[in-house]
Amino acid sequence: MENIEKKIEMECDVVVVGAGFGGAAAAKKCADAGLKTIMIERSEKVGEKIISGLTIPFHGFLFGPDFIRDGNPPIERPVDGIINYIIKDIEKNDIDIDDSLRVPKPFSPIFSVGYNAFCKAFCEWEVQQAIESGVELRTKTTVVDVIRDNGHIRGVITENNEQIWSKIVINAEGSHGLLAIKAGVREKYPPDTISLADVYVYDMDKKDIDRIFGFSLKFCWGWDEQKIAPPLGHGNGLMVWPYSDSLHLMQDQCLRKDDGPVYNLAGALRGYHEKITTNLPWWRDEIAPKVRLRARMWDGFEIFVGLDKRLRNMPNFTDGMLLIGDAAGLENTELCDGVPTAWFSAEIAADVAIEAISHNDTSASFLKRYDDRIKAHPIIQWAITSTNRYNLRYAQKEHDEKKLKKYIHDGWGLGFCKHGSSALMKITLSFIKKDPKVIGKWIRMYLRYYYHWHHRHYENIQASDGTQKKQKGIKLKSYLRLMDWLLWITSPLIRLLAGLLEPLSGAANPVMKLIFPIIAPMYLWFIKKWDMAFDPLSKQLVQAVVTSDPSIFDV
Amino acid sequence: MIKSFEDIPGVEWVPGTGEFIKVNSDLCSGCGNCVKVCLGSCYIVKGKKAVIQTLERCMECGACWYVCENEAISFSWPNGGTGFKTQWG
Ligand SMILES: Cc1cc2nc3c(=O)[nH]c(=O)nc-3n(C[C@H](O)[C@H](O)[C@H](O)COP(=O)(O)OP(=O)(O)OC[C@H]3O[C@@H](n4cnc5c(N)ncnc54)[C@H](O)[C@@H]3O)c2cc1C
Ligand code: SF4
Ligand code: SF4
């Protein structure tokens, strides 16, 4: 809305639109810096309109907001790897497996590659932390427009025509970007970049999930003519996430194939689901008899936006407004995870908002530093430009099994090291360089998360096992003390090493590519042979964690 | 009254949404794209024009809006606190 008459109904420093994964993190950081922050959410209760997978990968927790890393968010299950089923002929049961992405024992299951969670429970927890920092939350309120004053955004207008004036707006509205479009900052995405996800939640006994899934996700990929999964490169087949006492299952497919016709998704997605759940041996025999449908939902999300240069370069800031997370087009183009990038961009946006307000300058020229930092963030850039999912279409086109396996291995198997090592090395070293003691916080995070997941010790969730057995075996408390002490005395050396190695991060991908053919088979051989040998140690570690006094995991 | 549907368990719909999705029949070509992608069966094509039968089964996914090549569909959010909700997303 252009140059409206100013009727101040509400004035604050920062308005955050959307109390999802990113919005809550941005709002909390602004409030912690003493800014008067209002967060506006259209749903009645936080998180009840957010539909997701959801495995949040480890890098989100390690390199995202401190309060999440050092807190106790409600998680549904740690994840120690992915089992990919490559379905060549379902009738003949001709299925290959790539389970190369796996945390070896004794690290698994405590040191995980990610955590599964329900969006509502997780976002409610995040928002609660934000409220405790002083954020004012308004639910049941849809933001319908921005307030413009000579082109500069000065706040938002709600559906009740209420004006909320602010020094800066952080737009965390999620995927469809209706407010950004209304504000003239971004445009509607083309349908071939949007995927429609069909999500099913099944009740299943925890003991059965422990036995059948353990801590692994199961993903299925099939040749198009099998008609059991969406066309390769245009969607994901059956993806199953084990939760605490339920399975989360997703199939998704782009709305359109390049410039071709719009898919008949209402029929297709139903067909895949029926066919795969009745024909896939492990689902049909082991899962189907034990599950009951708890929920079904669907949502559209911006899967390939990052791969289109023009869309990727659409503005993520303007005079008076910063866009974060899905609203800024930061969905991962391969793993379809957007929570880590929502968190990273939330933190950057909050920092920039704090700086802009302290300089009394929220113009686009000042806010440009936000875009610069997003572009310099190694993980964000890696996430929005990964191509293995998209490239699956070429394997199908040429019906090339080798290619199919390669893309799956590189996207959802060990092959990710060939394109993800540089980003991970750079960010890890930059954190360690800043404060080597962060290593201790990471380790405590893994232990704390596992402890609380095991006991279901979360606010609003009934604990399943409140009794504490007496601690036997490994004395974690002493080990943690020793670790703290070692980190303390070696800090200067670690910092120096991290500083020296960080500039070499760019070489990690090429080096990995070079040595991958030698080290990958060795690693896979190692985990096959040694997993059994290390199993007792893994169990001892789990036992030590779950029987400890949880206060030793606090930071 | 809050609504739920047997074929879409675990989700509830709070009334009072308003007409948050609209079809401009002057622009609609009757191509049926919206019908094809709507998993909630919210649309039908009648007399070569798309008609919204119900928004009570709408999951606000935006698919219909994305696939309409004639910009005949206007898409906005339902009134705050209304529309679908779930705790299992
Ligand atoms: C099916 C599916 C599977 C996915 N799987 C994964 C996964 O496995 N791992 C992963 O990391 N990510 C996954 N994602 C992506 C992830 O869910 C998103 O990237 C993440 O939620 C983005 O966070 P955000 O804060 O940007 O937006 P959201 O979390 O979507 O939050 C946006 C919030 O803004 C509110 N809102 C929107 N407009 C307005 C308005 N005008 N006024 C007031 N409030 C408004 C919404 O109600 C919502 O609460 C998946 C997504 C989908 C759809
Ligand atoms: S997609 Fe658009 S043009 Fe086609 S039938 Fe639906 S409303 Fe009409
Ligand atoms: S938003 Fe999604 S569920 Fe709602 S009418 Fe459109 S396609 Fe159907």
Description:
The complex is a heterodimer of chains A (555) and B (89). Chain A is of the alpha/beta class and 555 residues long. Chain A folds into 3 domains: 10-73 and 118-189 and 306-376, FAD/NAD(P)-binding domain; 79-102 and 191-301, 2-Layer Sandwich (D-Amino Acid Oxidase, Chain A, domain 2); 413-553, no CATH class. In chain A, 43% of the residues lie in helices and 20% in strands. Chain A contains 18 helices and 18 strands. Chain A has helices at 21-32, 58-63, 66-69, 119-132, 178-182, 206-212, 265-279, 281-287, 309-312, 339-358, 364-376, 378-383, 388-398, 401-412, 417-434, 438-455, 476-501, 508-546; strands at 10-17, 37-40, 55-57, 77-79, 81-89, 94-98, 114-116, 136-138, 143-149, 152-158, 163-171, 195-203, 216-222, 235-242, 246-254, 292-301, 317-318, 321-323. In chain A, strands 1, 2, 8, 9, 10, 11, 17 and 18 form an 8-stranded mixed beta sheet that branches. Chain A has a 7-stranded mixed beta sheet with strand order 6-5-13-14-15-12-16, sandwiched between helices. In chain A, strand 17 (317-318) and strand 18 (321-323) form a beta hairpin. The longest helix of chain A is centred in the C-terminal third of the chain and has 39 residues, at 508-546. Chain A is globular and about 70 Å long. Chain A starts with 9 loop residues before the first strand and ends in a 9-residue tail after the last helix. With 89 residues, chain B is mainly β. Chain B has a single domain (16-79), classed as Alpha-Beta Plaits (2-Layer Sandwich). Chain B contains 2 helices and 7 strands. Chain B has helices spanning 33-37, 63-67, and strands spanning 3-5, 8-14, 21-23, 43-46, 49-52, 73-75, 83-85. In chain B, strands 1-2-7 form a 3-stranded antiparallel beta sheet, with no helix packed on it. In chain B, strand 1 (3-5) and strand 2 (8-14) form a beta hairpin. Chain B is globular and about 35 Å long. The two termini of chain B are 22 Å apart. The interface between A and B is large, with 51 and 37 residues. The complex binds flavin-adenine dinucleotide and iron/sulfur cluster (2 copies). Residues 17-23, 40-43, 49-56, 142-143, 172-174, 179, 197, 199, 250, 299, 301, 325-327, 331, 336-339, 342 of chain A line the site of flavin-adenine dinucleotide.
